[in-house]
Amino acid sequence: MKRHYVLVLGLLLVFFGGLLAWWVQTDGGQIEIKDVRFVGTNGTLMSALLYIPPGVSNENRAPGIVAIHGYINSRETQAGYAIEFARRGYVVLALDQTGHGYSDPPAFANGFGGPDGLAYLRSLDIVDPENIGLEGHSMGGWASLIATAVYPDGYRSIMVQGSSTGTFGAPEGTPEVPRNFGLLFAAFDEFSALMWGSETGAGIVNTEKLQAVFGTTEPVEIGRLYGSIEDGTGRMLFQNATTHPANHLNSEAIGDAVRWMQMTLVGGNGLDANNQVWQWNEIGRLIALIGMVVSMLAFGSILFDAPFFTAIVKPMPEAKVMQGIPRYVGYALAIFIPVLTYFWLQNLAGDVITAATPLFAQNITTGIMFWAVGNGLITLVLFLIWHFTSNRAQGATIANYGLSLSWVDMLKAALAAILIVLFGYLLLAVSDLLFKTDFRFWVVAVKLMGSLHFRIFLGYLPFFVFFFLVLGISLNGQLRLVSAEGKSAPFWLSALSNTGLLVLGIIAMLLLQYIPLMTGGTLPLAEPLLTIVAFQFVPLLTIVALFTTYFFRRTGTVYVGAFVCAMVITWIIVAGQATHFAF
């Protein structure tokens, strides 16, 4: 009966989290949000969310803003900006770049989709075509800048965060072009060297590149208006004490974007830039994400009571685990091997698979897959050495490692895992239908897959199944937390232990990178993109620890937990990544 109460709790979290997110992003139901599709350059199908404030019509046109996310993000990533713009009376088009979200691949095509987004917003009869702004983060800034070059008379102002002119196809800036240029660049931005040629974000004020855009030979002053907004030559630099990805969760950054649009666009309701509610949207989506995880755990536990699945439920096997000093060595290896191989294996993927293919269509996902498989192989070799040189002599068999299922029962375990994941997917689909929200927090996004995503998902899935099977054997068969009497620790303690083994190394690596950066230096290990990618593995591997620990204890084997983890992680990564192959 307790499991049913847990399921109800999870469902309530999903519902009320989604309701809170909807209430915030629609400003209490006043703002209409439409999921739109339109055809762009070369027949590319583009995707976006369209925010329509109250009172806007073809007879009462409003200023418009195109909001564009950065690399390996999606339209929902700019929700904080879109919500606050819409609350101030602007029609907002939150665009999926080409090859991102639900826009057709490949990534980087057609000016990242920026020109198509601007053209579409200008075509709407509810938008004043002479009063349009562009806002973009990182690569979304490049998309916005390219749009200004394609349609030099199609916009009134632009604000970019963590981005730059003259980079990766974006046009060079001058004191006159682009029109009314606002730049927010974090003091600790990881991409300062790429964007402006400065070792630190704070130091970009001294670069000739930035000074050329602002029409000065002196250090650019933060918050000073250069040029004239009336003439279209307005320039202003904003800077905050945060990082590149943290601009999505920063009230100052969002407030600065609002201020610049209020300064440069005509119209809107003049709501103070400090009056912000977007944070509650993030909190609502996080609550819903937690609810999904809780619901899947409870649903799986209830599912195992069905007669069809009773054969896969075994007693927890006797612990035959590492003991003494070797156990602590095992802990250290589990924590630090993934970190030591993190950059190497992901970069190796680019050397081995030099271009995206139909099977490996997403470059970042391919790198993560290489990292997972490589660590799986290393872990498997070390495990086999330990088993055959030590543990087999203690009477250990495959049953002690949670592997005692027949082929038929393994298929049943796979079916159970599919049903558990489908249940979580159904919750997401219902939330999308009712509230137009996904489950996310910051860099972790649980999105519905399009048909192409599902095809890509199937290609990567077997490799992640291998990794999570090996991981399940290692965590639950080799490093299981037991008392001196050999009794397994309580679930909460086992889950905490497994979480520590999976995330402490990542946290240590992030601290190694960010303590120097946040104290005025640079990233000691460089690799800004992959470092930012690493953030998502702290919450994702926490979810993995919960799934693999709980389902092992519930079924006595590693299979259901491994299959659930493989499907969930592959789904989350694939749906949120850029697709580079031109299908």
- Count of individual helical segments: 17
Q: Low-confidence stretches at least 5 residues in length (pLDDT < 50)?
A: none
Residue share in helix:
40-55%
Globally, the shape reads globular
How would you sum up the major sheet? 8 strands, mixed
**How much strand content do the residues show?**
5-15%
Distance N to C terminus: 49 Å
Structure description:
There is one protein chain. This protein has 583 residues and is of the alpha/beta class. It has helices spanning 2-25, 79-87, 114-123, 139-150, 192-196, 208-214, 251-264, 278-303, 324-340, 342-352, 363-389, 407-435, 451-478, 491-518, 528-534, 537-555, 559-576, and strands at 32-39, 45-52, 62-68, 91-95, 127-137, 157-161, 181-184, 235-238, 439-441, 444-446. It has 2 domains: 28-276, Rossmann fold (3-Layer(aba) Sandwich), CATH 3.40.50.1820; 313-576, no CATH class. 50% of the residues lie in helices and 10% in strands. The strands form 2 sheets. An 8-stranded mixed β-sheet has the order 1-2-4-3-5-6-7-8, with helices on both faces. Strands 9-10 form a two-stranded antiparallel sheet. Strand 1 and strand 2 (45-52) form a beta hairpin. The two termini are 49 Å apart.
